[in-house]
Design goal:
disordered C terminus, 23% strand, single chain
Length: 379
Amino acid sequence: MFRLLKGHIQPAGRRSRKTRLVTKDGRCNIEFGNIEYSNHFAYLLDFWTTFVEIRWRFVLLLFVASFTGSWFVFSLLWYWIAKSNGDLMGQNRTDEHIRCVDNVHGLTTAFLYSLETQTTIGYGGRALTGHCAGTVALIIVQSLIGVFINCFMCGVILAKISLPKKRAKTVTFSDKAVICLKTGSLCLLIRVANLRKTLLIGSQIYGKLLRTSTTPDGETVILDQVDIDFTVDAGKYNLFFVCPLTLYHVINRSSPFYELSVDSLPQQDFELVVFLDGIAESTSSSCQVRTSYIPQEIQWGYSFLPIISRTKTGKYHVDFSNFSKSVRVSTPHCVRCFETDSDQKNHNQENHGNREKMGIDNLGFQVIDIHDSVDITKM
């Protein structure tokens, strides 16, 4: 039963604006507080996921800082080697002096040599002389670290570009949900469309109703979740998601929307979150698309306009201008009203059928012939 929703009815004029847990574009509106300081090191241990999930501005800052920082650190080492060997300007050098690195006589030239070495530019003006053994070891270390930085940053950027949530941006839900009659039942309808021609393989659709409930023990549970089954005419799993689909949830006695009516719906306090899971055909990466609906975004007594038509050339045309548009249709006031009307119609049909059967011979009735007899009275 829908007791939890009934307990949160508020006057329309006093009702505060609903705060969503899931925004219309699928982002979760939640924050974590009072986390122990030691738990923050878990983000450093899982550094790859941390770098992939941070914002682009920080990725670009990390990209610039990692390369320029490594160039500068190694330039200090090259400067220290040149200073130890007496290669800098102002140091006393004899004519027989052999430099460790040609044309490195200051911090600026040491930085340029570090940059040229790590990026393999090699202008030719600065090079090792082979006189100092430390320079050979340092150039090997810098080359290996430079390769590692290149691989790591390229991997982070590629991973962020190919995130599945970017594919989810091309899957859209209707702005509103509607409640109307479908296939002889009162249903809640939602429309979803794939904006790309590439399919989402193995797609499945389901929903969660989020609400505040109270347990029999008197405990208040915030964000209590109730499963909502959605389906289409072709089923609910492995959908052929090549054109926009209309999802529907049958409102029956097992549905949490059973107690709703056209008058009580706008006064409810719940959030319906709809999920679409699938695998992108082009990248084989799994993705999830989410959206949410609050009671003010559910229209009772409306149905979606048709958007699929066939052109003269034989192609199927999808008109997205009517994707979220709806039209008013005849709909029962509540689910109980619909069930009462259905029972009354069935009862009338049964009575009507019985009246039609009046006057029809009973095949089990036996006909007996009665012969007339003459009654003679003797006097």
